[in-house]
């Protein structure tokens, strides 16, 4: 029996149900040469199915022994059958036969935003130009806005809960789409700040501190994570970098500190310095800073983020030739400078990770690195699902 109960309400007429035989022939019996990626819940293969014509697909084979995986498998099908939009990756179908749980997606040939930002030199030779990064951010923001609010034709009302650069996929035209809905939640129905109480889930480096503390999940937790993605795009740094100096381990805190100190130039991706217009950079940095505000209600909605990113893009595309890089402070930073209690200063961290909050909760850390600072040793762990005492990798705040 499969770990997934495929009641008729679960499967959508829009998603095709494949047999295991079809999945094996699509992936040459799950051949290793066809593996294009690995996530915490299994391998992803490049495959081919026929539906009148040959279609290239991405086949995600989940670990059948993972109970958590079974839940996420069901959620992914429910969400992607309900929400269909050009900025969300499309689910073509699924297979739930003989203990197997397999998802079939449209194939995204240019991989993930994370690949292009953090795997330069491996699969990708040239850094992404600034305009492309901006467009990718706008596409991803549109996808999230749709998920949060929907359109007049199709209401949204969901929270993604695992927004990160490795869940932003890129197609042939560099159009970006949000993927990985296994952790997402439906609701709440009404205004942006209403919440649902849930176990704390997500990925370190992107977790909204307020959600981590209170378990009150709102759309603003996605906005926070999106702010981290924006900083990644600007800086070319991962959300958590344990090989950096201790005060720079968490990009969210480090980035905000630099924004408020007017030292963004220290962390901006060097390949972008000649490209970014000052006014565009100011706007971009200000949006990111607001997305990362410690109070969820002070963060913008994704709809506002879309509009403002489009504005930033218009600035970048303007004809004015004053493309200069100068350190900037966001308006928010300037406004809050008056209130010193709001200024976040990353303190020098002690060697051991400081708990930013505590409490036993279930975290889906699908893969992370433990780096022994000062040595070159890195251990890659892949843990399907674990229960943890949550300790954020963010440094302590000096108040
Ligand atoms: N639709 C797709 N088209 C092309 N490649 C894909 C697609 N979906 C996933 N991949 C590749 O497979 C990799 C693993 O994806 P997956 O969603 O399983 O894990 P992840 O999001 O990277 O990590 P995790 O889900 O564990 O947090 C991705 O990084 C990407 O390279």
UniProtKB/TrEMBL annotation:
Pfam families named among the record's database cross-references: PK_Tyr_Ser-Thr (PF07714)
InterPro entries hit by this protein: ANXUR1/2-like, Kinase-like_dom_sf, Prot_kinase_dom, Protein_kinase_ATP_BS, Ser-Thr/Tyr_kinase_cat_dom
Keyword terms: ATP-binding, Kinase, Nucleotide-binding, Serine/threonine-protein kinase, Transferase
GO MF annotation list: ATP binding; protein serine/threonine kinase activity; transmembrane receptor protein tyrosine kinase activity
Protein kinase domain residues: 30-312
One GO location term (cellular component): plasmodesma
Binding site for ATP: 60
Highest taxon above the source species: Eukaryota
Coiled coil: none
UniProt xrefs under Gene3D superfamilies: Phosphorylase Kinase, domain 1 (3.30.200.20), Transferase(Phosphotransferase) domain 1 (1.10.510.10)
Record field: transmembrane: none
PANTHER family assigned: OS07G0166700 PROTEIN, PROTEIN KINASE DOMAIN-CONTAINING PROTEIN
Protein name: Protein kinase domain-containing protein
The species this protein was found in: Escallonia rubra
């Amino acid at each position: 029996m499969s770990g997934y109960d495929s009641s008729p309400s679960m499967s959508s007429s829009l998603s095709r149900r494949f047999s295991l035989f079809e999945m094996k022939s699509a992936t040459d019996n799950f051949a290793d040469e066809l593996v294009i990626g690995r996530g915490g819940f299994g391998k992803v293969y490049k495959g081919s199915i026929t539906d009148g014509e040959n279609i290239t697909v991405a086949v995600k084979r989940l670990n059948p022994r993972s109970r958590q995986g079974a839940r996420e498998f069901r959620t992914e099908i429910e969400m992607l059958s309900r929400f269909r939009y050009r900025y969300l990756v499309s689910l073509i179908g699924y297979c739930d036969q003989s203990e197997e749980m397999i998802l079939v997606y449209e194939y995204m040939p240019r991989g993930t935003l994370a690949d292009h930002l953090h795997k330069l030199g491996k699969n990708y030779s040239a850094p992404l130009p600034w305009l492309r990064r901006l467009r990718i951010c706008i596409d991803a923001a549109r996808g999230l806005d749709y998920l949060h609010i929907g359109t007049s034709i199709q209401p949204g009302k969901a929270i993604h809960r695992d927004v990160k650069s490795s869940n932003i996929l890129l197609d042939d035209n560099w159009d970006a789409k949000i993927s990985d809905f296994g952790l997402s939640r439906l609701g709440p129905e009404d205004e942006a700040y209403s919440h649902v109480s849930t176990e704390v889930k997500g990925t370190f480096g992107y977790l909204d501190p307020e959600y981590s503390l209170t378990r009150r999940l709102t759309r603003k937790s996605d906005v926070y994570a999106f702010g981290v993605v924006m900083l990644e795009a600007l800086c070319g740094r991962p959300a958590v970098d344990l090989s950096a100096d201790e005060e720079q381990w968490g990009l969210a805190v480090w980035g905000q500190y630099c924004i408020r100190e007017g030292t963004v130039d220290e962390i901006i991706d060097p390949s972008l310095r000649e490209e970014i217009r000052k006014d565009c950079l100011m706007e971009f940095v200000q949006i990111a800073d607001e997305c990362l505000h410690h109070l969820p209600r002070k963060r913008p909605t994704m709809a506002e983020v879309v509009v403002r990113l489009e504005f930033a893009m218009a600035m970048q595309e303007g004809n004015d030739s004053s493309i200069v890089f100068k350190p900037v402070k966001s308006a928010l930073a300037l406004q809050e400078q008056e209130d010193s209690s709001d200024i976040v200063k990353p303190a020098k961290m002690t060697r051991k990770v400081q708990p930013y909050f505590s409490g036993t909760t279930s975290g889906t850390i699908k893969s992370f690195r433990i780096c022994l600072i000062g040595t070159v040793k890195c251990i890659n762990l892949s843990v399907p699902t674990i229960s943890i005492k949550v300790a954020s990798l963010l440094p302590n705040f000096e108040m």
